[in-house]
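Try this one yourself first.
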Protein backbone atom coordinates (compact mmCIF):
# COMPACT_ATOMS: atom_id res chain seq x y z
CA UNK A 1 0.00 0.00 0.00
CA UNK A 2 2.81 2.38 0.88
CA UNK A 3 4.50 1.87 -2.50
CA UNK A 4 1.29 2.63 -4.40
CA UNK A 5 0.65 5.74 -2.33
CA UNK A 6 4.23 6.88 -2.88
CA UNK A 7 3.76 6.34 -6.60
CA UNK A 8 0.61 8.45 -6.49
CA UNK A 9 2.50 11.20 -4.71
CA UNK A 10 5.19 11.08 -7.38
CA UNK A 11 2.55 11.37 -10.09
CA UNK A 12 0.96 14.29 -8.30
CA UNK A 13 4.43 15.78 -8.53
CA UNK A 14 6.19 17.74 -5.88
CA UNK A 15 8.57 20.05 -7.68
CA UNK A 16 10.60 22.03 -5.16
CA UNK A 17 12.66 24.71 -6.90
CA UNK A 18 16.18 23.43 -7.50
CA UNK A 19 18.25 25.16 -6.37
CA UNK A 20 16.15 26.78 -3.65
CA UNK A 21 15.48 30.47 -4.16
CA UNK A 22 16.91 31.46 -0.79
CA UNK A 23 19.36 30.62 1.97
CA UNK A 24 18.98 31.01 5.72
CA UNK A 25 21.72 32.57 7.83
CA UNK A 26 22.04 33.03 11.57
CA UNK A 27 22.86 36.50 12.86
CA UNK A 28 25.98 36.56 15.00
CA UNK A 29 25.29 37.35 18.62
CA UNK A 30 21.49 37.24 18.41
CA UNK A 31 21.13 33.84 16.72
CA UNK A 32 18.16 35.27 14.86
CA UNK A 33 17.55 33.84 11.41
CA UNK A 34 17.34 35.83 8.22
CA UNK A 35 16.54 34.85 4.66
CA UNK A 36 19.21 35.66 2.13
CA UNK A 37 18.38 36.68 -1.46
CA UNK A 38 15.26 38.55 -0.31
CA UNK A 39 14.76 42.06 1.04
CA UNK A 40 15.06 42.06 4.81
CA UNK A 41 12.01 43.50 6.58
CA UNK A 42 11.74 44.43 10.24
CA UNK A 43 8.21 43.02 10.48
CA UNK A 44 9.19 39.56 9.22
CA UNK A 45 10.45 36.77 11.49
CA UNK A 46 12.25 33.78 9.99
CA UNK A 47 11.97 30.54 11.95
CA UNK A 48 12.91 26.88 11.80
CA UNK A 49 10.25 24.55 13.17
CA UNK A 50 10.54 20.90 14.18
CA UNK A 51 7.74 18.64 12.96
CA UNK A 52 6.42 15.51 14.64
CA UNK A 53 7.85 13.47 11.74
CA UNK A 54 11.37 14.62 12.50
CA UNK A 55 11.92 17.18 9.76
CA UNK A 56 12.77 20.84 10.23
CA UNK A 57 10.88 23.36 8.13
CA UNK A 58 11.54 27.02 7.40
CA UNK A 59 8.70 29.45 7.98
CA UNK A 60 8.20 33.18 8.03
CA UNK A 61 5.83 35.28 10.09
CA UNK A 62 4.72 38.66 8.76
CA UNK A 63 3.33 41.09 11.34
CA UNK A 64 0.74 43.72 10.54
CA UNK A 65 -0.01 46.18 13.39
CA UNK A 66 -3.59 46.62 12.13
CA UNK A 67 -4.33 42.90 12.00
CA UNK A 68 -7.16 41.23 13.87
CA UNK A 69 -6.70 37.85 12.21
CA UNK A 70 -3.81 35.65 11.10
CA UNK A 71 -3.55 33.85 7.74
CA UNK A 72 -1.71 30.51 7.55
CA UNK A 73 -0.70 30.13 3.90
CA UNK A 74 0.10 26.78 2.23
CA UNK A 75 1.66 27.33 -1.19
CA UNK A 76 1.62 25.24 -4.35
CA UNK A 77 4.00 22.48 -5.35
CA UNK A 78 6.46 24.35 -7.60
CA UNK A 79 7.39 27.26 -5.33
CA UNK A 80 9.23 27.97 -2.12
CA UNK A 81 8.74 30.82 0.33
CA UNK A 82 11.65 32.73 -1.12
CA UNK A 83 9.71 33.05 -4.36
CA UNK A 84 6.51 33.74 -2.44
CA UNK A 85 8.13 36.28 -0.10
CA UNK A 86 6.94 39.47 -1.78
CA UNK A 87 3.44 38.13 -2.37
CA UNK A 88 3.03 37.05 1.24
CA UNK A 89 4.16 40.47 2.44
CA UNK A 90 1.75 42.23 0.08
CA UNK A 91 -1.16 40.02 1.12
CA UNK A 92 -0.44 40.91 4.73
CA UNK A 93 -0.60 44.60 3.86
CA UNK A 94 -3.61 44.46 1.54
CA UNK A 95 -5.72 42.19 3.71
CA UNK A 96 -4.56 43.69 7.01
CA UNK A 97 -3.68 40.31 8.49
CA UNK A 98 -0.70 38.75 10.17
CA UNK A 99 0.54 35.97 7.92
CA UNK A 100 2.57 32.82 8.31
CA UNK A 101 4.01 31.04 5.29
CA UNK A 102 6.11 27.89 5.44
CA UNK A 103 7.99 25.51 3.19
CA UNK A 104 7.02 21.86 3.03
CA UNK A 105 9.61 19.25 3.99
CA UNK A 106 12.09 19.06 1.11
CA UNK A 107 11.28 22.57 -0.12
CA UNK A 108 13.58 25.57 0.15
CA UNK A 109 15.81 25.04 3.18
CA UNK A 110 13.41 22.63 4.89
CA UNK A 111 14.84 19.17 5.55
CA UNK A 112 13.37 15.82 4.60
CA UNK A 113 11.33 14.83 1.58
CA UNK A 114 7.97 16.12 0.34
CA UNK A 115 5.25 13.56 1.01
CA UNK A 116 1.56 13.78 1.79
CA UNK A 117 2.06 12.82 5.44
CA UNK A 118 4.97 15.22 5.82
CA UNK A 119 2.89 18.13 4.53
CA UNK A 120 0.27 17.34 7.19
CA UNK A 121 2.98 17.44 9.87
CA UNK A 122 4.41 20.62 8.33
CA UNK A 123 1.19 22.64 8.54
CA UNK A 124 0.58 21.36 12.06
CA UNK A 125 4.03 22.60 13.11
CA UNK A 126 3.28 26.02 11.62
CA UNK A 127 -0.09 26.10 13.39
CA UNK A 128 1.48 25.16 16.74
CA UNK A 129 4.06 27.90 16.26
CA UNK A 130 1.30 30.46 15.82
CA UNK A 131 -0.24 29.34 19.09
CA UNK A 132 2.88 28.77 21.18
CA UNK A 133 5.20 31.51 19.90
CA UNK A 134 2.77 34.25 18.89
CA UNK A 135 -0.19 33.51 21.14
CA UNK A 136 -2.66 33.30 18.26
CA UNK A 137 -5.96 31.68 19.16
CA UNK A 138 -7.48 29.04 16.92
CA UNK A 139 -10.57 31.18 16.36
CA UNK A 140 -8.38 34.00 14.99
CA UNK A 141 -6.76 31.87 12.28
CA UNK A 142 -7.71 31.66 8.61
CA UNK A 143 -6.22 28.75 6.67
CA UNK A 144 -5.32 29.45 3.03
CA UNK A 145 -4.41 26.62 0.64
CA UNK A 146 -3.39 27.05 -2.98
CA UNK A 147 -3.80 24.02 -5.29
CA UNK A 148 -1.87 21.13 -3.69
CA UNK A 149 -1.73 23.33 -0.59
CA UNK A 150 -5.47 22.70 -0.27
CA UNK A 151 -4.51 19.19 0.91
CA UNK A 152 -2.73 20.10 4.15
CA UNK A 153 -5.12 23.03 4.60
CA UNK A 154 -8.25 20.86 4.59
CA UNK A 155 -6.60 18.12 6.62
CA UNK A 156 -5.94 20.62 9.42
CA UNK A 157 -9.34 22.30 9.05
CA UNK A 158 -10.97 18.86 9.21
CA UNK A 159 -9.38 18.37 12.65
CA UNK A 160 -10.02 21.81 14.15
CA UNK A 161 -13.48 23.03 15.14
CA UNK A 162 -12.96 26.70 15.98
CA UNK A 163 -11.07 28.13 13.01
CA UNK A 164 -12.26 31.50 11.79
CA UNK A 165 -12.32 30.59 8.09
CA UNK A 166 -10.72 28.69 5.20
CA UNK A 167 -9.72 29.91 1.72
CA UNK A 168 -9.25 27.37 -1.08
CA UNK A 169 -7.41 28.76 -4.11
CA UNK A 170 -7.59 26.49 -7.20
CA UNK A 171 -8.11 23.46 -4.94
CA UNK A 172 -8.10 19.77 -5.84
CA UNK A 173 -10.77 17.19 -5.05
CA UNK A 174 -8.03 14.58 -4.58
CA UNK A 175 -4.76 13.63 -6.21
CA UNK A 176 -6.22 10.85 -8.32
CA UNK A 177 -9.14 12.97 -9.49
CA UNK A 178 -6.75 15.52 -11.00
CA UNK A 179 -5.38 12.85 -13.31
CA UNK A 180 -8.41 10.64 -13.92
CA UNK A 181 -12.19 11.28 -13.86
CA UNK A 182 -12.88 8.71 -11.13
CA UNK A 183 -16.17 8.82 -9.25
CA UNK A 184 -15.12 7.13 -6.03
CA UNK A 185 -12.27 7.50 -3.57
CA UNK A 186 -9.70 4.70 -3.64
CA UNK A 187 -7.56 3.71 -0.68
CA UNK A 188 -4.37 4.67 -2.52
CA UNK A 189 -5.59 8.17 -3.40
CA UNK A 190 -3.91 11.12 -1.69
CA UNK A 191 -5.16 14.50 -0.47
CA UNK A 192 -8.74 13.27 -0.20
CA UNK A 193 -10.23 16.74 0.11
CA UNK A 194 -13.56 15.56 -1.24
CA UNK A 195 -14.03 13.38 1.86
CA UNK A 196 -12.98 16.08 4.36
CA UNK A 197 -14.59 19.31 3.17
CA UNK A 198 -18.05 18.61 4.59
CA UNK A 199 -16.60 18.29 8.10
CA UNK A 200 -15.09 21.78 8.11
CA UNK A 201 -16.98 23.85 10.68
CA UNK A 202 -16.11 27.39 9.52
CA UNK A 203 -16.97 29.54 6.48
CA UNK A 204 -15.13 28.48 3.32
CA UNK A 205 -14.26 30.69 0.35
CA UNK A 206 -13.40 28.94 -2.92
CA UNK A 207 -11.56 30.78 -5.72
CA UNK A 208 -10.97 29.06 -9.06
CA UNK A 209 -10.29 30.09 -12.65
CA UNK A 210 -12.79 28.97 -15.28
CA UNK A 211 -9.96 28.30 -17.77
CA UNK A 212 -7.73 26.34 -15.38
CA UNK A 213 -5.92 23.75 -17.51
CA UNK A 214 -4.10 22.07 -14.61
CA UNK A 215 -6.89 21.56 -12.05
CA UNK A 216 -10.26 21.88 -13.74
CA UNK A 217 -12.65 24.44 -12.27
CA UNK A 218 -15.08 21.60 -11.54
CA UNK A 219 -12.84 20.65 -8.61
CA UNK A 220 -13.43 23.99 -6.93
CA UNK A 221 -17.13 23.98 -7.79
CA UNK A 222 -17.72 20.52 -6.35
CA UNK A 223 -15.81 21.33 -3.17
CA UNK A 224 -17.90 24.48 -2.76
CA UNK A 225 -21.11 22.49 -3.13
CA UNK A 226 -19.93 20.13 -0.39
CA UNK A 227 -19.06 22.92 2.06
CA UNK A 228 -21.08 23.03 5.26
CA UNK A 229 -20.79 26.82 5.53
CA UNK A 230 -20.55 28.28 2.08
CA UNK A 231 -19.34 31.78 1.33
CA UNK A 232 -19.87 33.44 -2.03
CA UNK A 233 -17.27 31.79 -4.30
CA UNK A 234 -15.26 33.54 -6.98
CA UNK A 235 -15.09 31.87 -10.38
CA UNK A 236 -12.56 33.97 -12.27
CA UNK A 237 -13.71 34.11 -15.87
CA UNK A 238 -10.75 33.20 -18.12
CA UNK A 239 -8.48 32.66 -15.12
CA UNK A 240 -5.93 29.86 -15.38
CA UNK A 241 -4.10 27.96 -12.67
CA UNK A 242 -1.26 30.40 -12.16
CA UNK A 243 -2.65 33.85 -12.82
CA UNK A 244 -5.59 34.53 -10.52
CA UNK A 245 -3.71 37.27 -8.68
CA UNK A 246 -3.66 39.20 -11.95
CA UNK A 247 -7.39 39.83 -11.77
CA UNK A 248 -8.67 42.76 -9.70
CA UNK A 249 -11.54 40.62 -8.38
CA UNK A 250 -9.07 38.34 -6.62
CA UNK A 251 -7.92 40.83 -4.00
CA UNK A 252 -11.29 42.60 -3.84
CA UNK A 253 -13.11 39.39 -3.06
CA UNK A 254 -10.53 38.33 -0.50
CA UNK A 255 -10.87 41.69 1.26
CA UNK A 256 -14.64 41.29 1.32
CA UNK A 257 -14.32 37.81 2.80
CA UNK A 258 -11.81 38.87 5.46
CA UNK A 259 -14.06 41.77 6.43
CA UNK A 260 -17.05 39.44 6.73
CA UNK A 261 -15.34 36.83 8.90
CA UNK A 262 -13.78 39.51 11.12
CA UNK A 263 -17.32 40.32 12.23
CA UNK A 264 -18.21 36.77 13.20
CA UNK A 265 -18.80 36.12 16.87
CA UNK A 266 -15.93 34.31 18.52
CA UNK A 267 -18.04 31.88 20.53
CA UNK A 268 -16.19 28.57 20.93
CA UNK A 269 -17.59 25.76 18.83
CA UNK A 270 -17.38 22.05 19.27
CA UNK A 271 -16.92 19.77 16.30
CA UNK A 272 -19.83 17.75 17.67
CA UNK A 273 -22.07 20.74 18.33
CA UNK A 274 -25.38 19.80 16.81
CA UNK A 275 -26.56 23.39 16.70
CA UNK A 276 -24.32 23.90 13.70
CA UNK A 277 -26.58 21.59 11.74
CA UNK A 278 -29.46 23.98 12.25
CA UNK A 279 -27.61 27.16 11.42
CA UNK A 280 -28.77 28.49 8.09
CA UNK A 281 -26.21 28.39 5.29
CA UNK A 282 -27.63 31.75 4.26
CA UNK A 283 -25.25 33.39 6.73
CA UNK A 284 -22.42 32.65 4.35
CA UNK A 285 -23.90 31.28 1.17
CA UNK A 286 -24.45 33.81 -1.55
CA UNK A 287 -24.97 33.36 -5.23
CA UNK A 288 -22.03 32.05 -7.21
CA UNK A 289 -19.97 34.92 -8.48
CA UNK A 290 -18.15 34.95 -11.80
CA UNK A 291 -15.54 37.59 -12.38
CA UNK A 292 -16.10 39.83 -15.37
CA UNK A 293 -13.02 41.90 -14.69
CA UNK A 294 -10.20 41.65 -17.15
CA UNK A 295 -6.74 40.66 -16.09
CA UNK A 296 -4.36 43.31 -14.87
CA UNK A 297 -1.65 42.88 -17.46
CA UNK A 298 0.70 45.36 -15.84
CA UNK A 299 1.95 42.65 -13.50
CA UNK A 300 3.44 39.20 -13.82
CA UNK A 301 2.22 36.49 -11.52
CA UNK A 302 4.07 35.36 -8.43
CA UNK A 303 2.06 32.19 -8.07
CA UNK A 304 3.55 28.84 -9.00
CA UNK A 305 1.63 26.13 -10.80
CA UNK A 306 1.10 22.53 -9.95
CA UNK A 307 1.52 20.16 -12.86
CA UNK A 308 -0.91 17.67 -11.38
CA UNK A 309 -2.30 16.28 -14.60
CA UNK A 310 -1.43 13.52 -17.04
CA UNK A 311 1.80 15.29 -17.84
CA UNK A 312 2.66 15.58 -14.18
CA UNK A 313 6.18 14.26 -14.77
CA UNK A 314 7.15 17.72 -16.05
CA UNK A 315 7.09 20.64 -13.61
CA UNK A 316 5.47 23.89 -14.57
CA UNK A 317 7.99 26.66 -14.94
CA UNK A 318 7.87 29.05 -12.03
CA UNK A 319 6.75 32.54 -12.84
CA UNK A 320 8.98 35.54 -12.56
CA UNK A 321 8.88 38.12 -9.78
CA UNK A 322 6.17 40.76 -9.87
CA UNK A 323 5.17 44.03 -8.39
CA UNK A 324 2.85 42.28 -5.99
CA UNK A 325 -0.75 43.40 -6.31
CA UNK A 326 0.38 47.06 -6.44
CA UNK A 327 -1.62 47.90 -9.53
CA UNK A 328 -4.84 46.33 -8.28
CA UNK A 329 -7.46 48.90 -7.31
CA UNK A 330 -8.98 48.07 -3.98
CA UNK A 331 -12.69 47.73 -3.41
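Now uncover the answer:
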Amino acid sequence: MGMVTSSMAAKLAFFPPDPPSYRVAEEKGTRELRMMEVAEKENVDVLKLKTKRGTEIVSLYVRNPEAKLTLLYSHGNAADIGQMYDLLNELSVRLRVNLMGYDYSGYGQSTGKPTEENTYADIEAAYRCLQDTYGVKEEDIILYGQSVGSGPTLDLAYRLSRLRAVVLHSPILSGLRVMYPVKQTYWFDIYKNIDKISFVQCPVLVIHGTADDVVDCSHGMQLWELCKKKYEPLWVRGGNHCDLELYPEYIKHLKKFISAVEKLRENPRSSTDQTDKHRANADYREKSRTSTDRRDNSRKSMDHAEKVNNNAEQPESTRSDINQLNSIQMA
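Discussion: Confidence is low (pLDDT under 50) at residues 266-287, 296-331. The chain has one domain: 2-291.
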